[in-house]
Each structure stands twice: as structure tokens, then as C-alpha cells.
């Protein structure tokens, strides 16, 4: 019998990402911002890691959890919905998960929603008793139905789920929704959410017992640094000394600011690394509280 690939000592990490689709570009950009660079193979299915021994495998997103389970790759960037469906289906067969979500990555956001015909008056999950639900996520849908104590028929469709009610294949759907435009175009209305999804870094449940362990730690450390800084901005402004306590209260997501005296004793210059989104509204609130010369700068990297 062929040993599982995980038991073979390896000194390079392999990350599976979507070859083409919603998650492929942001996944590459995120990994590149962790300092990874690659040489692409001619068939464009494999990218050889140049800056670090971390290679990419370019595949269909649905294949990623299986490739992780087989030890063909060590990490994967995949929708929480896809990973959740795979693990729920394993659970139905009495199998433990072999891969798990390690980090939420902040892109590819969507919801897995139950949507019903617009004409329905929604009264709650019990209304689905005895109905047919079309979905590409049968295990997650069944899991939810069980939790709600509802018995319904799950109709598995691999695509075009939203037209199933119009075609008479199902009464309602359980599908991914982002803007909601697809549902509206099909006279459907979302009524309840089974899962909030986004792209995640999926990785093994077990730890590596070879040089990949150190590489994995390095990758996660860099990823955490990048994710933490994603919304971070360096905020610079001046303010009268007596306005500073109120201004600092308006920056609960900031690191302790650097404060310099600029103009006699009365004007201070502040510099603060803020981790939340720096919206126009926040800047206007700071201005109203006495801040002057507000400057918001992007932050590329930190190391502490
Ligand atoms: O070829 P491959 O199998 O790799 O690609 P794919 O076609 O299966 O995947 P892709 O690229 O469509 O989606 C990859 C992942 O993106 C999904 O698994 C989700 O995690 C995430 N994602 C985010 C979405 C959406 N938003 C999304 N809106 N995936 C699909 N949709 C579809 C949805 O199924 C529906 O048909 O978009 C339509 C709804 O969009 P709205 O904006 O009209 O609501
Ligand atoms: Zn897919």
C-alpha cells in the first residue's frame, strides 16, 4: 500500500490555491506579500518557490480539502464553505477532520443562505418540513436541518442552484450569496444564514515532524503580520495639549501613540499606528475633537 504523503519527510511546503476564480488572485497577492515568489511551470499547475522553499499547486477550489487530506499539499487557501462541507461530509461518515481552518484571510466573503421564493411569508425553519432544498452544500445543509429538527429533502446540484425552484427541481435553495443580485434576479429572497464564509488558510490537524514545521511557523508568523496590518494605517496629526485625552479615546484600536511637543507647551504632534479602518467619518470626528493636519499613511511592514 502507498504510504500517505504526510509520512514522507519533506523539506518544502506545498500550498494549494485556486487556479482561476474568485480566490486565485487575492490568494497569490497575499502569499506574495508574505515574501514568497515563484517560478511557474510551463503547464501553470505548479509554481516552484524561489525566495523560500514554499511551492504552489494551482487547482480547482473543491479539490483543495481532498489534497490536504491525502497529504499532497500542506496548506490550502479555500472558502470556509468548501472546507466546512468537506469536513461535515467526513463527519457524516464517522471520520475525524484531517484539516482545519488556521486563519481567516479577509477576502472572498460571502454567506451560505437559505433563500425562498419572494412570494413566501417566512415563518422560520419549521416551514421547510417536507420541502425540497437545492444546494451544492448537502452536508452543511443536512447538518443545519438536523440542528433545527427539520426533515427535508436535500437535492444536490453542482451549479445553477438558483434556478432550481423555477425549474420545479426544488422549493427553496441553500446557496452562496454575496451581493444578493443573483437571488433577486431569480425571484428568491434570503431568509437565514447557515455560515458566514471567507477565504481561509486550511492546514493539517497534526503538526509536521520534519523541516516543514519550521517553514510553517515562519509562514504563519509572516501571514499574521500581513493580516494584522491589512487595515492598519499610521495616523499623524497635531492637537492642543488639552484635547489629547479625548482624541486618544477616539482611537481605541491604536497602539500607544508617540507624542512630541512642537509649539511651546500648547501644541502636541501625535503619531499612532491604528489597526481599524480609517474612514472619513473617523477623521471628521478627530477633527471635531481638535485634531489638525491629519495625515493617514499606509503601513507596509512591522517587526517587533
Ligand atoms: O473552478 P473552481 O471550481 O476552482 O471555481 P468555482 O467556480 O467553484 O469557484 P468560484 O471562483 O466561483 O468561488 C470560489 C469561492 O469564492 C467560493 O467557494 C466562496 O468561498 C467564494 N465566494 C465569494 C463565492 C461568492 N462570493 C459568490 N458570490 N462563490 C460563489 N459565488 C456565487 C454564488 O454561488 C452565486 O451563484 O455567486 C453567485 C451569487 O453572487 P451574488 O453577488 O449575486 O449574490
Ligand atoms: Zn469549485
Strand order of the largest sheet: 2-3-4-1-5-12-6
How much β-strand is present in the residues? 25-35%
Q: Write down the domain tally.
A: 3
Helical residue percent band: 25-40%
Q: Distance between the terminal alpha carbons, to the nearest Å? A: 48 Å
CATH evolutionary superfamily of the largest domain: Periplasmic binding protein-like II
The CATH class of the largest domain: Alpha Beta
Number of strands: 16
List the ions, cofactors and other small molecules found in this model.
phosphoribosyl ATP, zinc ion
The major sheet is characterized as: 7 strands, mixed
Estimated structural class: alpha+beta
- The number of helical runs is 9
Q: Note the overall shape.
A: flat
Account of the 3D structure:
This protein has 304 residues and is an alpha+beta fold. It has 3 domains: 5-108 and 199-229, D-Maltodextrin-Binding Protein, domain 2, CATH 3.40.190.10; 110-197, Periplasmic binding protein-like II (D-Maltodextrin-Binding Protein, domain 2, 3-Layer(aba) Sandwich); 233-298, Alpha-Beta Plaits, CATH 3.30.70. The protein contains 9 helices and 16 strands. The strands form 3 sheets. The protein has a 7-stranded mixed beta sheet, with helices on both faces. Strand 14 (258-263) and strand 15 (267-274) form a beta hairpin. The model has no long low-confidence stretch (mean pLDDT 94). Bound molecules: phosphoribosyl ATP (PRT) and zinc ion. Phosphoribosyl ATP is lined by residues 18, 21-23, 60-62, 79, 81-82, 108, 110, 175-182, 197.
